[in-house]
Design brief:
single chain, 259 residues, alpha/beta, disordered N terminus, Rossmann fold
């Protein structure tokens, strides 16, 4: 038996489905954005089956890293592609900052490699920037509660090992360019705001530091400023120029007398 609906009702149903997909951070099934996401998942299937957390990425680099001297204020920047693509030496010259970002990663993957890529490096501070790929569903659908639990687990592991936690806000996204359409469709701005609200509250309640990139990079429409990313997600030089001094200020809250 088929349900008969008129043209107007059919259009209303389509709009409702699109709004639902937008709200919950999942591109509508069959859309180009959904196809792109599925293509990404398929391309990573074998690698993630064998090494879900991608621990192999930094294993050799970690082994060759010398122990931090007692007076070194080592910082690990821990995250996804936004961290991975950040030339820390160029933006923080002379600082003992270590990049441990991996493009495409979600918080369950990051939690899996947290001991190897953060704790074992013995930093004084970890700057965690994560969540945008969870919203996109890179490793499958994720609820806000699951993402928040992974954030909390990373913070608890850090504190148990005397590492100060800086939680960076998730960056806004935009859809102002052709290259940005699919990435934007995968990431709900509403979810970004909700997770950032949780991160700020959690940081306050647990004496962590909240690093607010979002407020400095968002425009009047609630999206990422057009000139900060060509693809609507990954910061360009102008974007990192905004982020770098904010990161420095957050780290200096741990070490206010840093020379």
């Amino acid at each position: 038996m088929f349900l008969k609906i008129n043209r107007k009702a059919g259009l209303q149903l389509i709009v409702a489905l699109l709004l639902c997909a937008f709200t919950f951070g999942q591109a509508p099934p069959g859309s180009r954005a959904a196809q792109r996401l599925e293509g990404y998942r398929q391309s990573k299937a074998t690698a993630l089956r064998d090494d879900f957390g991608e621990l192999a990425r930094y294993r050799a680099a970690n082994a060759s890293l010398k122990p931090a001297p007692p007076d070194e204020k080592r910082v690990v920047f821990f995250g996804d592609s936004i961290t991975d693509m950040w030339n820390l030496a160029g933006y923080f010259p002379g600082e003992p900052y270590i990049n441990r970002g991996i493009g495409g990663q979600t918080t369950p993957q990051m939690l899996l490699r947290f001991r190897q890529d953060v704790i074992d490096l013995a930093p004084k501070v970890v700057v965690i920037l994560a969540g945008t790929n969870d919203i996109a569903g890179n490793t499958g659908p994720m609820s806000l509660e699951d993402i928040e639990a992974n954030y909390a687990s990373m913070a608890e592991l850090a504190k148990a090992n005397s590492i100060h936690v800086v939680f960076a806000s998730i960056l806004p996204v935009h859809n102002y360019t052709p290259d940005s359409q699919d990435l934007f469709a995968q990431r709900s701005p509403q979810k970004i705001v909700e997770l950032n609200r949780w991160l700020k509250s959690y940081s306050s309640d647990h004496c962590d530091i909240y690093l607010d990139y979002f407020s400095a990079m968002v425009d009047e429409k609630g999206l990422l400023k057009r000139d900060l990313a060509e693809d609507g997600l990954h910061p360009n030089k102008a974007g990192y120029n905004i982020m770098a001094p904010l990161a420095t200020a957050a780290i200096e809250k741990v070490y206010p007398n840093k020379p």
